[in-house]
Design brief:
45% of the residues lie in helices and 19% in strands. The chain is an alpha/beta fold. The longest helix is centred in the middle third of the chain and has 25 residues.
């Protein structure tokens, strides 16, 4: 059995995606900042017959991420799919004229340093398997800068560029990299923005191995 590892596990989209991959036979590693939180999520999945464990790590701490991913692979089996989707903190979303250099440290730690650390750490295992998928989940500011959420606009753009470069470099090795852009947030009464629908879409990015970037709904929104 191989493992689906999600960095930024939570009760909404994260849990829906974990459940979707678990139904396909993956074991599931849930990574988030709080051990109690991921233990509760893992227990929910276990009650549905999905092999799952939770690991505490802050996405802004590369050493903690590496340790969590090592533990997950040892406990559950080699990581085949890595999803990077931690929720940005509210303080990352200041207007552009109010944003200082210091305000960008947190967003860059989470959306640039974090994914680079995670991907580089799992990449040897993906190469050993000879397959795998890396998934980035972002909001619309990753491709359309929004001066009201400057930190995420800057950092998501960096994450998006990194993902595109990974896609181009790893495709010849049979390792797929994909990004899903979710404009207008999760839910809100739009059927294609609900967690279960998004989870199906995310699984299809792994299964179908299409182009690097895809959008939920109107890509211009």
């Amino acid at each position: 059995m191989t493992t689906f590892a999600i960095i930024g596990a939570g009760p909404g989209l994260g849990q829906a995606t974990a459940r979707r991959f678990g139904r396909e036979g993956f074991s599931v590693a849930l990574v988030s900042r709080t051990q109690d939180k991921v233990d509760r999520l893992a227990a929910e999945l276990a009650a549905e017959g999905i092999v799952s464990r939770g690991y505490a790590a802050n996405a802004r701490d590369p050493w903690a991420l590496r340790a969590a991913l090592d533990a997950a692979a040892a406990d559950l089996g080699p990581i085949e799919v890595l999803q990077y989707s931690p929720v940005p903190a509210k303080e990352f979303m200041k207007p552009v004229l109010d944003t200082t250099a210091e305000d960008l440290v947190g967003p860059l730690e989470q959306s640039v340093y974090g994914p680079v650390a995670a991907v580089q750490h799992v990449l040897p295992g993906l190469r050993e398997l000879g397959r795998g998928t890396v998934l980035f989940i972002n909001g619309g500011s990753a491709v359309t800068p929004n001066g009201n959420v400057t930190g995420t606009s800057v950092a998501f753009a960096g994450e998006s560029a990194y993902g595109q470069m990974l896609h181009d470099a790893l495709a010849p090795e049979g390792i797929h990299v994909a990004q899903l852009i979710i404009p207008r947030g999760i839910g809100g009464g739009e059927p294609d923005h609900e967690p279960d629908a998004l989870a199906d879409r995310i699984f299809s990015l792994h299964r179908d191995r299409g182009p690097f970037r895809s959008f939920v709904g109107d890509e211009n929104a």
